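Consider the following input, taken from an annotated entry for Os05g0231700 protein (Oryza sativa subsp. japonica).
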Amino acid sequence: EQRREPHLGKKKRKIISSHFLLPFSSPRIFTKQISLQFFSFFFLILRIFSIEERRELWDRFRAMAKEVDPCDHGEVVDAGCVRAVLAELVLTFVFVFTGVAATMAAGVPEVAGAAMPMAALAGVAIATALAAGVLVTAGFHVSGGHLNPAVTVALLARGHITAFRSALYVAAQLLASSLACILLRYLTGGMATPVHTLGSGIGPMQGLVMEIILTFSLLFVVYATILDPRSSVPGFGPLLTGLIVGANTIAGGNFSGASMNPARSFGPALATGVWTHHWIYWLGPLIGGPLAGLVYESLFLVKRTHEPLLDNSF
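Applying the prediction step yields:
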């Protein structure tokens, strides 16, 4: 009896550890659980508000949508709109040119999906962060410095920009990205243009969830540091946005590519003709961006009505 107890104990511990490691041993199960937990957390956030508060939120969003004409075609002849679209074209061109050139200089792995050395990835992250911070600052008072269809769509979903202007922005961003990558291909003598791809062992669903989370964090910072009128550091908002872009590049670069920007992925794919898993770099950012706007405005921009305590309340 005494000899069997240690054996049974080891067997029991082995069973427990195998059940604990089961989600991590199967990529599909792990991705499914992460997805369920992410969306469960989102719906849990919505349940924080009472029915009256939800109705107040809905009325507020409807009022916000009415304030902005979603199809203001008159903007096409507005000088301010034309300047803004041209600014998006120039700024996105420089951003994609810098990011892709930095990646090419760092060295593209010869094997598709192979991990980039951390030193090279850090260099790309620094270049991308500096470019994003400086360019958003440069275009902030002209077009808002979007540089990213995910940012444009997120602001459209919250009523901060018209549908007509957002369509012009996205078209300018995609055109700029394409021109930047085609020009880089010519300037480098046909050097391989790096395309966003999934890392080794990363499935499409894993890459999708990764892009959703990375873009969510990016837009959350945009809302907190730029769009929130209570921000204590309004002038530093674009620079802080650049920092989160760099941090996310290091965090997700070897897993999903850390695109967070459909335009950044579109140009290289068009220049090379490689469209493998390209849908991930559209769907992920276009889910994560508007979701961040919804969560931030629902949680942190809601005016809760309450009576302040008086000094003689006790």
